[in-house]
Specification:
The chain is α/β, with parallel strands linked by helices. It has helices at about 40-45, 75, 95-100, 110-115, 120-130, 145-160, 175-190, 205-210, 230-235, 235-245; strands spanning about 1-10, 15-25, 30-35, 55-60, 65, 80, 165-170, 195-200, 215-220, 220-225. The protein has 2 domains: about 1-75 and about 160-245, Rossmann fold (3-Layer(aba) Sandwich); about 90-160, no CATH class. The chain is built from 10 helices and 10 strands. A 6-stranded mixed beta sheet has the order 6-7-8-3-9-10, with helices on both faces. A 4-stranded antiparallel beta sheet has the order 2-1-4-5, covered by helices on one side. A hairpin with a 2-residue loop joins strand 1 and strand 2 (about 15-25). The protein is globular and about 50 Å long. Bound molecules: adenosine-5'-triphosphate. This is Branched-chain amino acid transport system ATP-binding protein. It comes from Muricoccus roseus. Keywords: ATP-binding, Nucleotide-binding, Transport.
């Protein structure tokens, strides 16, 4: 679903991503982990076209993305969420998801909100149920607590009916109960709906529970890859990131 080949990105003299290759297979949850500054977000931003790589190649759904703009990815079936939430705080929960649902139709914000075909509303209501926000559908997005705002961002991403979900730290700042709900939802999206998920995440509780594959980065490069159990035991990973405690967890 995603193929990253020899990706390098330099910011001036700093090599943020260094010759990174990785393959995300269909219907898997693939986590990108590593210490702060390892190059995870930069890799993510190259895949979602916010950054232009210095060299290397990225294919998404078999297509070279080098000529695409960030907004070209949604029509291809690729949705993303952001580490710093990017909601329309003044709009309702329902309207925020509606905006996502209309991505295929083009047009401005006003047109997207004005056109509310019943089928689209039905889909949006269904998504709000799935992320546990149905009862908040008419609340203003900015009035939700942080955990619910994160679920709203996820619902908006799902509204485009994506085949690939790119999630930037979906569990950051969530409480245990919320992480459990996210775990169940992501599993269901992959198992039942056939989505593919690539996530950058620091919350090991989630990564180790849900990932089929984990790529570990340090200093811009890949230092390990495997199942959660494999990377947890990898001495390089233990030294760079997880610590002895996680190795024995
Ligand atoms: N826009 C930028 N301009 C210059 N340097 C940058 C930029 N974005 C990231 N960097 C640098 O590139 C390196 C990799 O950063 P990146 O944000 O990709 O790491 P990360 O693994 O996502 O870290 P974190 O877990 O803290 O989010 C860091 O040294 C960072 O300071």
């Amino acid at each position: 679903m995603i193929e990253v080949e020899n990706l390098t990105l330099r910011f001036g003299g700093l090599v943020a991503v260094n010759d990174l290759s990785l393959v995300v297979r269909p219907r898997t949850i693939h986590a990108l982990i590593g210490p702060n500054g390892a190059g995870k977000s930069t890799t993510f931003n190259c895949i979602s076209r916010l950054y232009r790589p210095t060299s290397g190649r990225i294919r998404v759904l078999g297509r070279d993305v080098s000529g695409l703009r960030p907004q070209d990815l949604a029509p291809l079936g690729v949705a993303r969420t952001f580490q710093n939430l990017e909601l329309f705080g003044g709009l309702s929960v329902l309207e925020n998801v509606l905006i996502g649902a209309h991505v295929h139709c083009g047009g401005g914000l006003r047109e997207r909100l004005a056109a509310r075909p019943p089928a689209v509303i039905g889909h949006v209501e269904h998504l709000l149920e799935r992320v546990g926000l149905a009862e908040f559908r008419h609340a203003q997005a900015s009035a939700l607590d942080f955990g619910r705002q994160k679920m709203l961002e996820l619902a908006r991403a799902l509204a485009i009916r994506p085949r690939i979900l790119l999630l930037d730290e979906p569990a950051a700042g969530l409480r245990n109960r919320e992480i459990g709900a996210l775990d169940r939802l992501l599993n269901e999206l992959v198992e039942r709906d056939g989505l593919t998920v690539l996530l950058v995440e620091h919350v090991m509780q989630l990564v180790m529970a849900i990932s089929h594959r984990v790529t570990v980065m340090n200093f811009g490069a890949r230092i390990a890859e495997g199942t959660p159990a494999e990377v947890r035991r990898d001495p390089l990973v233990v030294e760079a990131y997880l610590g002895q405690e996680a190795a024995h967890a």
